[in-house]
Design goal:
By secondary structure, the chain is an alpha/beta fold. The protein has a single domain, classed as 3-Layer(aba) Sandwich (Rossmann fold), CATH 3.40.50.150. It contains 8 helices and 7 strands. Strand 4, helix 7 and strand 5 form a beta-alpha-beta unit. The longest helix is centred in the first third of the chain and has 21 residues. The structure holds S-adenosylmethionine (SAM). S-adenosylmethionine binds next to helix 4 and strand 2.
């Protein structure tokens, strides 16, 4: 991966995300994306990016699946970490304008271990045939429990699940949180008070 391009792109996205959260997306971006409403990147925070990189480097999941790419900020961090041991990442995004921008960044940093599926998660997950060693949930918060149940047949014993926005959208993630705790299928369940709140657990 091209380190210099990685630094440039992730720093620029951090600046834009902060500005868009404050004042809404710029007119330039509305034009670029062809939207007339506030959309935003809604990226993971920098601390979460560093934490998940470290988790990936130490646990070395071979196949990572990300639900919700946006423009690829979290994907870039995970791809960089996974590259160090030969891991790969499949990321899913339904909005064509975000997928296009993410693809441009993956190309710019020369990430050879990223595949992006432009589709609805619910349909894309059904078509995945390979096992998932780390599942990162960061799409529609109120659907996390649906995504997890769809992905479950692909999770091996010991696979890791990580979910963002556990503390800033508690109502939306409530069904997911309850399912992870009550299903009896997960252990080591923790919610980290970092950025938007991150759940981490392991499939039994
Ligand atoms: C919070 S953002 C992802 C941020 C990204 N993971 C990051 O940290 O840089 C959520 C993304 O999920 C996408 N999304 C929401 N529901 C989806 C669905 N059902 N299928 C595919 N993508 C979806 C949205 O379009 C949005 O870009």
């Amino acid at each position: 991966m091209n380190e210099q391009r990685f630094q440039e792109i992730t720093s620029r996205l951090e600046r834009l995300d902060a500005a868009f959260r404050e004042t809404g997306i710029s007119d330039e971006y509305k034009k670029k994306w062809g939207v007339d409403h506030n959309v935003g990147f809604w990226m993971i925070g920098r601390k979460t990016a560093e934490w998940i990189s470290q988790l990936i480097r130490t646990q070395q999941p071979a196949h990572i699946v990300e639900l919700g790419t946006s423009v690829g900020y979290s994907t870039l961090w995970m791809a960089k970490a996974a590259e160090s041991y030969g891991g790969n990442i499949l990321t899913i995004e339904k909005e064509p304008y975000k997928a296009k921008e993410a693809r441009e960044y993956f190309e710019a940093v020369e990430a050879a271990n990223v595949e992006l599926i432009e589709a609805e998660i619910e349909s894309a997950l059904v078509g995945i045939a390979r096992p998932i060693d780390l599942l990162f949930l960061d799409a529609n918060k109120s659907q996390y429990h649906v995504y997890l149940k769809l992905a479950e047949p692909l999770l091996r014993s010991g696979s890791i699940i990580v979910a963002d926005n556990m503390l800033d959208y508690p109502d939306k993630v409530a069904k997911f949180d309850a399912y992870v705790r009550a299903s009896g299928k997960y252990e080591g369940i923790e919610i980290l008070d970092m950025d938007h709140g991150v759940l981490v657990a392991r499939r039994k």
